[in-house]
Design goal:
heterodimer, A: about 140 residues, alpha+beta, Alpha-Beta Plaits, two-stranded antiparallel sheet, 4 helices, about 20% helix, globular, B: about 600 residues, Aldehyde Ferredoxin Oxidoreductase,  A, domain 1, Aldehyde Ferredoxin Oxidoreductase Protein, subunit A, domain 2, Aldehyde Ferredoxin Oxidoreductase Protein, subunit A, domain 3, 3 domains, 6-stranded mixed β-sheet, about 40% helix
């Protein structure tokens, strides 16, 4: 399973990112979310959204094996084992592996909790099997 | 403080002093946030008789306890000041992402005080707050300035910016944000302009504390679920506020040719359906909104991108000017946004001028050669620029329709469509007595957002003048603006029919304080009365006469359209006010009685 996005449907509201920060950190802080929304305004006037594909490239390079798989098969960061080496960040093909030491003392990424999908009013986000390209 | 940023930021532009103070607990208790904070600070801190354009006036920008949290539409920001347009209370609500960023920077209010001697912008990055030189940005359009900051500082920064209209003192200048969101009404941008603050840029990385995270998450998610399950979600999101254009046209509420009628023969050209098919490219939401009404559009004809137009702009820049081309409305919208002037007041001013021209009250000599007939698109574009620059006829129209018509005279006062000097928003009220009363008594002037009562008129009989109708208007005035206090959006309740009690557990989990809607409505009533007393304090002789609508709605029945031949009787206008004052606990001249002031806990504040 993985998260999918149709950027054309995104309205840039950021509800997904608040929900994400609550799930990952128990905090209201979209700067600590694992989804990226890039507004492209005034032209062309669209949002570009980046989400984790659960490819596992981050886990493959993690020297402390802090990036593990949960019961859904999603890779997540075990905060206690992350040493902030940042090896994972450049490996992420989508740019959704985060280390921001001013915000958190561990790396973070999408753990496929699904809360972002639950709050997305425009159905821009969904979770499906990795093989499928559309819901 | 749970649910709050926790601090009030004050910026004294006269001496550059920047201070912070903790958000007072009693302020939170009595006024909650947003528009409530604004009303309190305005009444308490801006001295009686202050010149709106002088050093004593303040611009108070406030978030609410919902702002920046997992609550649908929690992106509403309140801007309060003494209005340079009306001389009374001004409070404008702006959507987008600015208010959320304030909370992440730990701020509940930003209060701009004094006057800067040179152009500056306010830079806020968490605890770093600085006034910086803006000489290079002065004179530039809002779009270019926002783009400049986003490229320079990155997309995590939010930007609020004024345009040339605000710099030049047009009294209905607005504040722009996110390429198309505005604090539009009453001249909040004018006050920012006279203070020489070109922009506020803000970035925050703090987490907002809540009282009970699990309960809040559950309650917030429940409101999102209700929105997503709502039957009307798809239709509403497809069209946003423009969905009402065709309905207004059908029922005679679409302001047409300076409100002389309520139906427009060219209406189809500007309907929401037409707009969606022809120009909309993206749905653009405020912070946390599952039902985004913002429509981002591209006009090929004019080679422009613009957020909107939304219904009010379509009404005032379309039908009200006799313009039936949605792409022309979109261009007029962008011109106003970029120049930083309110589309509603601007559309009224141009509509009034067009009527003057067609009646021979203004001639080509006055218009600088413009053939200012209704429907003249190019003349409209040109006049928008002239208003923002206060040039030629634009200088007259930049005064607002009340003052402009007083200057021109010749009966033009009768078709200057305003209440208290604020131009009427886009509902024609020839025969819609609840909506008419809503405009007459609205706390900022003729604006619809406090009490959108027009559907109620159609439900119960549009010409009926009964206490129940008045009670409905009052209830809406107490209840609806509470969303502006909470920092949230009312449209999920209005348009999707979300059960409003769903918000109660969310508010309690966020703030740790149990409040029912009954409690909140009492706060709404407190704010309503406080701002009424503000009007009275600032304007000698304030009373019933100030609540009178444009004579157009009781003297001139439309000659065409759905409301052809229909009019509100003058005695009904007065009966509406009698009932309203009585139910409000006000005197026959419309001032809160001492016992009302006492009951609402305002005695000490207004003493």
């Amino acid at each position: 399973m993985r998260l999918y996005v149709d950027s054309a449907k995104c309205s840039g509201c950021n509800a997904c990112r608040v929900a994400c920060s609550i799930n990952l950190f128990g905090e209201n802080n979209p700067k600590k979310a694992a989804i990226v929304i890039e507004p492209h305004f005034p032209a062309p006037g669209v949002y570009g959204v980046k989400v984790c594909t659960q490819c596992g490239d981050c886990a493959a390079v993690c020297p402390t094996e802090a990036i593990k798989q949960n019961e859904k098969g999603a890779y997540y960061v075990d905060f206690a084992e992350c040493n902030l080496c940042e090896a994972c960040v450049p490996e992420c093909p989508e740019g959704v592996m985060f280390v921001r030491t001013e915000l958190a003392n561990a790396a973070w990424k999408c753990d496929l909790c699904g809360d972002c999908v639950a709050v997305c009013g425009t159905s821009a986000l969904w979770i499906a099997e990795k093989e499928l390209v559309a819901a | 403080m749970n649910g709050y940023g926790g601090q009030i930021l004050r910026v004294d532009l006269t001496n550059g002093k920047i201070t912070k103070e903790p958000t007072p607990a009693e302020l939170v208790r009595d006024f909650i946030g947003g528009r409530g904070f604004g009303a309190y600070f305005l009444f308490k801190e801006v001295p009686k008789g202050a010149n709106p354009l002088g050093a004593a006036n303040k611009l108070i920008i406030s978030s609410g306890p919902f702002s920046g949290l997992l609550i649908p539409g929690a992106g509403k920001c309140d801007f309060t000041t003494k209005s340079p347009l009306t001389g009374g209370y001004a409070s404008a609500s702006m959507g987008g992402h600015f208010t959320a960023e304030m909370k992440y920077a730990g701020l509940d209010s930003i209060i701009l005080e004094g006057l800067s001697s040179k152009p500056v912008y306010l830079f806020i990055d968490d605890d770093k707050v600085e006034l910086r030189d803006a000489a290079d940005l002065w004179g530039k359009g809002t779009i270019a300035v926002e783009k400049h900051f986003r490229e320079k500082l990155g997309e995590e920064f939010q930007v609020a910016v004024i345009g040339p209209g605000g710099e030049n003192g047009v009294p209905y200048a607005c504040i722009n944000h996110d390429y198309g969101r505005q604090a539009g009404r009453g001249g909040v941008g004018t006050v920012m302009g006279v203070k020489k603050v070109k922009a506020i840029v803000i970035h925050g990385t703090k987490s907002i504390p809540v009282a009970d995270l699990a309960a809040y998450r559950k309650a917030g998610m429940a409101i999102y679920k209700a929105c997503k399950d709502a039957e009307g979600l798809k239709e509403w999101t497809r069209y946003g506020t423009t969905v009402v254009t065709s309905w207004c046209d059908e029922v005679g509420a679409l302001p047409t040719r300076n409100f002389s009628a309520g139906s427009f023969e060219g209406g189809k050209g500007i309907y929401g359906q037409t707009m969606r098919e022809k120009i909309v490219i993206t749905d653009k939401g405020c912070f946390g909104c599952p039902s985004p009404c913002g429509k981002y559009s591209r006009s090929k004809k004019y080679n422009i991108n613009v957020e909107g137009p939304e219904y009010e702009t379509i009404g005032l820049m379309g039908a009200n000017l006799g313009i039936d081309d949605i792409e022309a409305v979109a261009r007029a919208n962008l011109l106003c946004d970029d120049l930083g002037i309110d589309t509603i007041s601007t559309g009224n001013a141009i509509g009034w001028a067009m009527e003057c021209y067609e009646k021979g009250i203004l001639t080509k000599k006055d218009t600088g050669g413009l053939d200012l007939k209704f429907g003249n698109i190019e003349a409209t574009f040109e006049l928008i620029g002239k208003i923002a620059r206060r040039e030629g006829l634009g200088a007259l129209l930049a005064e607002g329709v009340k003052k402009a018509s007083q200057k021109v005279g010749k009966g033009s006062e009768k078709f200057a469509i305003h209440v208290k000097g604020m131009e009427q928003s886009a509902y024609a009220t020839h025969n819609a007595t609840a909506m008419l009363l809503a405009y007459m008594t609205c706390d900022v002037g003729a604006h619809h957002n406090r009490s959108w009562a027009i559907t109620y008129d159609l439900q119960v009989g549009r010409d009926k003048v009964v206490p129940e109708k008045v009670a409905r208007v009052i209830w809406l005035q107490n209840f609806r603006p509470m969303f502006d206090v909470l920092g949230g959006c009312r449209l999920q309740w209005v348009e999707l029919g979300i059960d409003r009690t769903l918000y109660e557990p969310a508010l309690e989990a966020i703030t740790g304080v149990h409040r029912t809607w009954e409690d909140l409505e009492k706060v709404g009533e407190r704010i309503w009365n406080l701002t009424r007393m503000y009007w009275a304090r600032e304007n000698e002789g304030f009373g019933r006469q100030w609540d009178m609508p444009s004579p157009r709605f009781y003297e001139e029945p439309p000659k065409t359209g759905a409301t052809k031949g229909q009019i509100t009787r003058f005695e009904d206008v007065n009966t509406l006010l009698d009932m309203y004052y009585e139910q409000r606990g006000w005197t026959a001249d419309g001032l809160p009685k001492p016992e009302t002031v006492e009951r609402l806990g305002l005695a000490e504040l207004v003493a």
